[in-house]
Design brief:
128 residues; mainly beta; Lipocalin; 8-stranded antiparallel beta barrel; 1 helix
């Protein structure tokens, strides 16, 4: 009986173990909040599991999922910010185009500024 109880405790402890997500750009980022707007301010909060994801890979490829469906993929690079007054904000460039997005990463939180600077999208890292 004691062995069975010990087995149950070990299995329960393993099942409750949280996945550790390391800081840094590479991995999957899920949308948590969108705020801002040009004519009408919006502030939308998204629950975990919503499926709106940016995935950045260490081979400089990315994928974008909208509601769990792959909607965009290609290559990316980061242009490091040289402005010392906003040192935590770099520039994300997708597919070598002229379009770029200010991006800031603080641990496992990412902020991406879109729509010409009108919207601020906040993401939470969900996996490496």
């Amino acid at each position: 009986m004691k062995k069975y109880l010990l087995f149950l405790i070990i299995v329960s402890a393993c099942a409750c173990k949280k996945t550790v997500v390391s800081p840094g750009l590479f991995g999957k980022w899920e949308l948590r909040r969108v705020s801002g707007g040009d004519f009408a301010y919006q502030d939308s909060v998204f629950k975990p599991g919503n499926g709106n994801i940016y995935q950045f890979n260490n081979d400089s490829t990315y994928k974008v999922y909208t509601n769990h469906i792959l909607t965009l993929q290609g290559t990316f690079h980061i242009r490091k910010n040289t402005n010392s007054t906003i040192a935590t904000i770099d520039i994300l460039i997708l597919d070598n185009t002229a379009e770029s997005y200010p991006i800031g990463i603080d641990g496992t939180s990412m902020t991406l500024v879109t729509m010409g600077g009108w919207l601020q999208d906040n993401y939470q890292k969900i996996s490496d």
